[in-house]
Amino acid sequence: MSHERERRQVKKLFTFLFITSRGGQTRIRIVKSLLNGALNANQLSTLLSLDYKTVQHHLDVLQQNMIVTKEGRDYGALYRPSKTFMAYLDVFLELVSDPKLSKTTKKEP
């Protein structure tokens, strides 16, 4: 797959995960927090003032889509951005800073 085609596919995935799907704003907040260093779900929950199960759900979605990696098991497992995600960090930052796209983000309850 060509580099440009791969970038388009990544942008499409990121747009879905962070912009158009419900929960996108929460996932943006989680990823931005993890860019500052690895955290576990409880630390993220406290830092972002979110329910633990909500954070856990979004971490599962991000992990399934290779945005974050999990180190360790169970309660104290640490999450950090994946190497794949970091290779496309510029795409993420471009998307989340685009005011036209942020207006289309679904509002969360």
UniProtKB/TrEMBL annotation:
A GO MF term: DNA-binding transcription factor activity
SMART domains reported for this sequence: HTH_ARSR
Organismal lineage: Archaea, Thermoproteota, Thermoprotei, Sulfolobales, Sulfolobaceae
Entry-linked InterPro entries: ArsR-like_HTH (IPR011991), HTH_ArsR_DNA-bd_dom (IPR001845), WH-like_DNA-bd_sf (IPR036388), WH_DNA-bd_sf (IPR036390)
Record's protein name: Regulatory protein, ArsR
Coiled coil: none
Species in which this protein is naturally found: Metallosphaera cuprina (strain Ar-4)
Domain HTH arsR-type residues, every copy: 22-94
